[in-house]
Structures are given as C-alpha cells and as structure tokens.
Fold this sequence. Notes:
By secondary structure, the chain is of the alpha/beta class. Among the domains are: 50-145, CATH 2.40.50.140; 251-439, 3-Layer(aba) Sandwich (Rossmann fold); 449-605, 3-Layer(aba) Sandwich (Rossmann fold). 39% of the residues lie in helices and 18% in strands. The chain contains 23 helices and 23 strands. The strands form 4 sheets. Strands 2, 3, 4, 5, 6, 7, 8 and 9 form an 8-stranded mixed beta sheet that branches. A 7-stranded parallel beta sheet has the order 13-14-12-15-16-11-17, sandwiched between helices. It has a 6-stranded parallel beta sheet with strand order 18-23-22-19-21-20, with helices on both faces. Strand 7 and strand 8 form a beta hairpin. Helix 7 packs across helix 22 (667-679) and helix 9 runs parallel beside helix 10. Bound molecules: adenosine-5'-diphosphate (ADP) and magnesium ion.
Amino acid sequence: MRPEILFSLFAPVTTLKGVGPRVAPLLERVAGPKVRDVLWLKPHSVVRRTPAVLSAARDGEIMTFEVTVQDHQKPRVHTQPWRMQVADETGLMMLIFFGRFGEGLVQRHPVGARRIVSGKVDESKFGRQMVHPDYIVAPDKRDEIPELEAVYPATEGLPARSVRTFVLEALEKAPDMPEWQDRAWLDRERFPSWREALHALHHPEGEADLSPLSVHRRRLAYDELLAHQLAMAQRKAARRREPAARIGAGDLAGRLKAALPFAFTGAQERSLAEIRGDLGSGERMSRLVQGDVGSGKTVVAMCAMADVVDSGGQSALMAPTEILARQHYETISGPLQAHGVGVVLLTGRDKGAARAEKLRALASGHAKVAVGTHALFQDDVAFDSLRLVVIDEQHRFGVAERQRLQAKGEATHLIAMSATPIPRTLELTMYGDLDVSRIDEKPPGRTPVATRAVPMPRLDEIVGRLRDAVRGGAQAFWICPLVSESEVSDLAAAEMRAIALRKAIGPGVGLVHGRMTGAEKDAVMANFADNKLSVLVATTVVEVGVNVPNATIMVIEQAERFGLAQLHQLRGRVGRGRRESSCVLLYDPPLTEAAEQRLDILRRTDDGFAIAEKDLELRGGGDALGLRQSGLPDYVFADPFVHRDLIAAAGDDARLAIQRDPDLATPRGQALNVLSELFDWKAGLALRDAG
Ligand code: ADP
Ligand code: MG
C-alpha cells in the first residue's frame, strides 16, 4: 500500500496550479501523468539573465536591461507586430509583440514608465530588438526575474518557462521524507537530503549543477538505484522463502561427463558447482548462466538435468526457435539416452499421434527430459514431476511464457542461459534478482576467427574471395543490417545483395529475413545447416546459437552500425570447427576515430566479456550497447555508466537491508519502503523478472 506521505506526489498533474484540461495532456507528454513525474523533470540547461546596459547588448544572448518606455507603435494591419520602443542612457531597443496585444500593453506599460525587461537580444537589420520578452516588470518587482533560470524540455503549446513554473509548483508539494539512506553513507558521500537534492536540481547555479556527477544528482541517482536494487532483493528473498525440491549431485552427471570426448573447462566446472549449490539448498534456484556462444553452457545444463533425473524429477529445456531446439536435442539426447534416460523433442511440428505419444511420455514421467520450443508450455502439455526449467536465450521469451512452463511443476528451479555478455557494472542493474554464473573461458582448441575491417569500395574483392572459398567447399554468412527507418527498403537491400551474390557466386545463396514466418526461416536455416546452401544472406536474424560448424566465413555489412556485443555474437557463429575462420567487417568510409577504435577491439580480442566492458567504456552512457531491449532499466536519474560506482554500493546496501529487516519494519525499513513506493519498480520489473 502506498504510504500517505506520497499521495500528493502520485496525484495527477491537474492538481498543480494552472494545469487544466488544455495544459494537462501537454504536460503529460513532457513529464508523465503524475506530480512526481513533473518533479522529476531534469533541466537541460541554465540561463543567466545578465544585467547590462543597452550598448553592451549581445546578439542572441539572454540579458536583462533597466529601461524607460518611450513609444508604442500600433500595427497598421493585423499581420504586423505591436512595437514598443524602450531606451536607457546608452541606447534604444524595440520590443516586439505578435498577436493581439493592443491597448492592454499601453495601459500596463505607459510611456515614461521604468521597466526591467529580460529576454533574448536580437540584433537584426531593423536594429536592436527583443521579440516577446520573457519578463517586463516594474523596478520594485525586480525579484520576480530569476537571475538564473533552469530550462526544461518543452513541447508545442507548452513553453519551457511554463514547464518550469509547474516543476517549481511540484517542488512546493514535495514533502520532507524520512531519511531512507544510511547515515554513515550519507555523511561519507556528503549527500544532501532528498528534498534538498531536488531543490538543487531545480535551482542550478551554473552548468556544473546540471552534471550527473554533481552531488545532488548523485544522491538522486543513488536513491533510484537503491529503490531498484531493493525491489530485486525483495523478489529474490521472496523466492528463497518458497521451499523447492532439494536435489543432490547424483552420479549420472559424472558418468555423462566421463563419456564426453572432452573435459570441462574451469569455468564450466565452477558454473556447475554453483548450480549444484542452488539445487541442494532447498530454495528455489533462479540462476543466469552467461557465456559466449559455444562456451559450453548447454552441456553444463545437461549435467544439472542429470542430477534432476537422479532425484526422480523431470527437466525441460526451452529454446526460442525450432532449429535451436533441434540442435540442443542433438547435443544432449545422445549422451542421456545412452544412459537410459528418455528424452523428448517437442516443437510446433509435432502433430497427431506422434505428439500424443510424446505428451504421454512426459505426463507419465517415462520421459525425464523435454527439449522444445514454445510448444512446451501449451496447455495440454503436462509433466509428472517437473523440477527444473532451462531457458536458452532467455531474453527472447516473455516472463509469462517462462512462467507458464515453470507452472507445470511445483517451485521449479530455473536456469536461464544467455549468450549476451553483460559488463560487470551492468550485471546488477539487469539481473539483480538472479544469481549469475559466468562461463568466461572457451573450450580449448578453438581457432580464433581472423577479423578485419574492409571499406565498402573493396566489395568486389571480398566477393571474389568468397567465390573462391565457396568453390573450395566453404560456407558463409552475409549479414545485411536493418538500419534505415523503413524495414521495407532494408529488406530490399538484402534481397538485392542476395541477387548480386547469386550472380557472382552461383545459385547456392539463400536469404532469411524478419518478415518470414518462423517455419520459413527454419527451412532456409536448415538448408544452410545441411550444406545445401553455401551462402546465407540474413538481416541480422541469424539465430543466436545456431551451430553450423562448416560455416567459416562471416561478412557483416555496415559493421560500424552495430554494437560491439552484437558484432561479437555474429562473429561467434563461425569458428566452431577446427578450420580457420574469418570475419570481414565491411564499413562505409570514412570511419570516425571512435568507430575505428571500436572495430579494432574486435580484431584484438575474442572475449565477449572484455568486449562488452570496452564497448561500454568507449561509448559511455546512454543506451550504448542497445541493452535496453534486453532489460536495462529506463532510469530517470541514474546512468549505469556514469554512476557505476553507485550500483554496487546500492546492491550491497539493499541486500543487507533486506537481510536485517526482511519486512522493512524498523524506522529505516519504513523509510526504505517509502523510497520503494516512490520509485514504484514493481510494474516494470514484473515484465522481466524471473520469479
Ligand atoms: P553454448 O550452449 O554455450 O553455445 P554448447 O554447450 O552448445 O555451447 O557447446 C558448444 C560446442 O562445444 C558443443 O559441440 C559442445 O559439445 C562443445 N563443448 C562444450 N564444452 C566443451 C569443452 N569443455 N571442451 C571442448 N568442447 C566443448
Ligand atoms: Mg547455445
């Protein structure tokens, strides 16, 4: 329940003075529906209304003058503005008013009156003028003109100055909050109180006060991060309170491992140990396993499934596409079946009697492992005792879908797998509610992919080499990005590329794109995987994780448009086998220095985590990595890059607070509860939380 102290902030913007039915929708567009949202607007600049004499006026600057009204020049026709001449001892200026001002101006500012005017100076060929001054006041009302004024985002029909008025009004309404931050931390960081921080936000005294590094902005960012971490820590704690089947490490996993033609890497061993720690704890596991494509996540998950088999339970492994599901099935069904474990593959293709047979095997518990696609969580799929759900490429599924599958068992454990390496600094903000294992070590014996950047004018040369390679039996991916506003024209570009390549190389060139149905895509991908196609042109939809060991060449057009993590993932699709592989990054010259640096990182390293960190560093804040889609929260004050030092602190702070005071009953706990409700992360979180 929302604490009473927040009621005024959660009231609609219409509760602000001057916000009626005309203004409300405009203000909502700029800020949001609530008073809180107006309070949270950030000024983007600050105006200093320098007092000066007219002879010192500078074109384009916002300045303030003390003048005497000399003359009113009425317009002769309506289209002309009203002009008001003012002067001081040093010069003249014309104030210009468009629209129907008329006699009111004469009454308010009669000839001979002293006035302070403030606004933007415009030195035009008609002389010095000021169009619609921001302020015209009598000298005794001088105080009404702020010397410094924060400038807010505006919209058509709602100028920045009106927005500022509403913001200051919202600030008036902001209550003094109980302090939710730890005293010692507050002192150490020299943070002002919440209200003081907001006051400083809206009364900047210079550019420095607009910086996200200013102390008040850091305080507000920390509040936001803390609220978010708190929400995630609470979810995690709640999940832990649900008892789940205690699953010990059995010996099937050991036998499976012994039969593999390779040994686990250290990182795989560590991840498996972490998973086993969770499975044996009696609490529900929600663990994310992160690692590059090909780092060996699936075999780790297989060992966890083997432990579940030994405990008498069932597991389900769900992948976003049929082809991926099939590949997982091929990876794990052999070893499992060799040890007498029933494995079922269930996709949208299964129909009729064959499907019914598979469903029976799962419902009876005869089959211990199910691998499949969305087909797995359909209503008529039932399990005898589902205890572990493994989701591959977890961001490709909605929470509801994942939950539908998990709901087929009781307090089922969850392993999510992702091939998108997330920098450490962002891990907490994206996955604070999960436990994370990193597989940051590649299986030995992989040949690194030779990577180089080539300018587009050398396209013919690249195509020529590709033709030679294809004649020698190689297979290649050719990626055309979706970049323009129009998907149609991008698609046309990809189609043109496919046609051109067919001309140069021969008929074995296929095309997949986002407009195709899943089945159509799968069919083309399958042809490529079966080596019936030599070149696969794709609009970035090459499914992450698809394994085509014979593919050794990756060409990426307009590589400069991609995030590094994306490029790295695309590149990860080659270099699967023993053969030398290469990756060509085609770009439109000239490259900016930054773009050149970014592409160069790819040439130098093959470690997805290192690449993600470096990319974040180079591109800085904002949505540098295109991660927002994959779950980076949309913060108001916090910037995961600029405030990265605060993220870890907020995470520790939140965990400790929840540990000591799970029900938030102490005075600080209650204050933290106000903070949580103020930021109200629940709604947003529910979209992606694993719980
Ligand atoms: P991911 O799921 O992370 O993409 P997989 O588990 O599918 O990776 O493994 C990719 C390939 O590497 C598979 O063919 C797998 O058998 C193999 N593999 C996995 N672990 C190792 C290892 N430690 N040594 C050698 N090969 C491995
Ligand atoms: Mg995989």
